[in-house]
Every structure is written in structure tokens, then in C-alpha cells.
Design brief:
The protein contains five helices and eight strands, in the order H-E-H-E-E-E-E-H-H-E-E-H-E.
Amino acid sequence: MELAFAVDQNQIFGAPDWIYSERYDIDAKAEPGVSLTYEQVKPRLERLLRQRLKLASHREQKQLDGYELAIAPGGPKLRRSIGAAGTGSVSPGGMRFPTISMSVFAPILATPVGKPVVDKTGLKGNYDIDLKYSPTGNANANAPSIFAALQDQLGLLLQPRKVAVDTLVIDHVERQPAQN
């Protein structure tokens, strides 16, 4: 559901408990000779969930505990991107994105910080991001927390706030998938 609807687990409401423990193997193929992007896969996954699990859902905007991404005192330390968009990566100890906007970067921070993040920097354009931090729960003194890394390396900070977040509300879902 997270992939199909582009939401994090903390943005799904009304789901039965089993939804987080049940696992299903999905064996699906695109039309011959077609290579799909993530944006093209999403509606196909959504259709599959609606057909096979009789999923009924709707979207709601909710106020959740989260963070606003803002400019730290002293200003941003970002490098404007001059290249073409590239493939980014996120690992437990860092993230690297050539050519990314703050409006796209902010929601990505939700994974390492565990709460939704919205962009309030006011920064326009694309930037090259290369951020190194200690994974959550790791007492590695050689790397800073993601909060300290954002401020020290990028001149940005995360401010705890209630933030408006698009959520997925599950109205109905069946545990046993329908047959092909």
C-alpha cells in the first residue's frame, strides 16, 4: 500500500492489524517490451490491491506530529545543482541526491526521522545533496545525528510541529486475496 499510494506506514489509518504482518507474493509483468517508471507502476499496484484484496480507501488530510524543514541560523549551505537529474540513494547512514528540490527532499527525510516532514525553506530550484549521519539507535560517535548533520552540512533544521499530511484511510480490505 505504501508503494501504490505513495505514503509511509504512519500515513495509513483504519488498517486492520494483520496488514502489517501478512505478506503476499506478487508476480506481475508489464506488457511485453514495456519498461515502467515508479509513477507508471503506482496505478497498476493500486488497481491490483483494489481487485485482489477488495481494497476500498479514501484520502484525508490530517494534522500529525512531524517536522518543518527550515533554514538554520547562518543560512543554507547548499550547492545549487548545475547537472541533469540523477539517481538518488538513501542508506542507513546517509543520502545522496544530485539535482533535487526542497519540496521533494523534505518528504524523503520522513524515513530517517520517523515522522512526516514538510518543506518550509522557501528555497526554489534544485540542489545537490550529500548528507552523512549516524543511523537512528547507533551510538557511533564518528557521525552526527541526522538533525545535527542537516544543520552542520546543509544549513537546514527540522522544527517539531503539527503538519498537514495527506493520508490514506482504509475503509475495507479483505485478508484473503481473490484468485486471478
